[in-house]
Design brief:
Helix 2 packs parallel to helix 7, helix 5 crosses helix 9 and helix 6 runs parallel beside helix 11. The protein has 12 helices and no strands. By secondary structure, it is mostly helical. It has one domain.
Length: 284
């Protein structure tokens, strides 16, 4: 009985940590909160719950509760910290998350192929990678726009972040940077400015609630093709955030070391998740 209670507590804490990573991942440029949901195995339960809340909320409640709390902590609690880190050590922070993403790719690859792989799966992966990599690289090197932040733009930010959640591989933070909204958004979130937080929340909710059922249907009817498209999107997401300019050789070394630390951390998190979480989810 004592061991069972310890496992329940550990499961809750693991999901809480995963939620924090998802929340922070939604903030960091080029990192997809939705992709993190897929990687941590909570994307499909989340989508099923959003698509059919009365049917699935009870089934996934104790799985999604700590994840939701963690997302709130990561997104709101770390917004100011992320802003300062990105200002002072942007390349190093991004490299650590690149390592985290790459370390989770093997599990994502296995999940994508759990119902087999065919020609359509590889075409889906390749097309997703090429299209999204092209879009991300265009956004990175394209000409930015000057926009004055207001309620309408905060609602737009929330809508884009909602897409970031339900369509893994999309990068809301990158879009915000190119629009000049990223740092003002983080300032507002970190200060819990309701003029910023409420429109963002409404925009995200509007997109998630209106599109989640359709996305969930894709997974049920076209699991392999959809999952391989997501895998291509996650791979494409890494390209535009790789630092290409370095001040010195030591900067290169630190970036590589941090990427390796992120890679190792992701392997540990995934291994622990497989041991303590996936077995329980399969019985639900």
């Amino acid at each position: 009985m004592q061991k069972k209670k310890q496992n329940v507590v550990l499961q809750f804490l693991l999901r809480l940590v995963q939620g924090c990573i998802i929340g922070v991942g939604g903030i960091l440029p080029g990192v997809s909160g939705g992709a993190m949901c897929v990687i941590f195995g909570v994307y499909r339960p989340l989508m099923e719950t959003l698509a059919h809340p009365f049917k699935n909320l009870k089934k996934y409640f104790w799985m999604l509760l700590p994840v939701g709390l963690g997302i709130g902590i990561g997104f709101i609690g770390f917004a100011g910290i992320v802003k300062q880190i990105m200002v002072l050590h942007e390349d190093q922070a991004v490299c650590a998350f690149i390592g985290l993403i790459l370390g989770m790719i093997p599990q994502l690859y296995r999940d994508a192929g759990e119902q087999g792989r065919g020609k359509r799966a590889w075409i889906s992966l390749g097309a997703s990678f090429v299209v999204l990599a092209s879009v991300f690289l265009y956004l990175k090197y394209g000409r930015g726009l000057h926009i004055v932040p207001n309620t309408g733009w905060w609602f737009f930010c929330g809508a884009v972040w909602g897409l970031n959640v339900i369509i893994p591989g999309t990068s809301s933070s990158s879009a915000m940077i190119f629009l000049g909204l990223f740092k003002p958004m983080l300032d507002g979130i970190s200060r819990l400015d309701l003029h910023v937080v409420i429109p963002i929340g409404l925009g995200a909710a509007a997109v998630v609630l209106s599109l989640s059922r359709g996305i969930n249907a894709l997974f049920k009817k076209h699991h392999t093709v959809t999952y391989h498209a997501i895998l291509g999107a996650v791979l494409a997401m890494v390209l535009p955030i790789i630092p290409l300019q370095f001040g010195s050789a030591s900067d290169v070394i630190w970036d590589v070391v941090l990427a390796l630390i992120g890679f190792g951390a992701s392997l540990v998190i995934n291994a622990v998740s497989q041991k303590y979480l996936h077995k329980r989810e399969q019985t639900q």
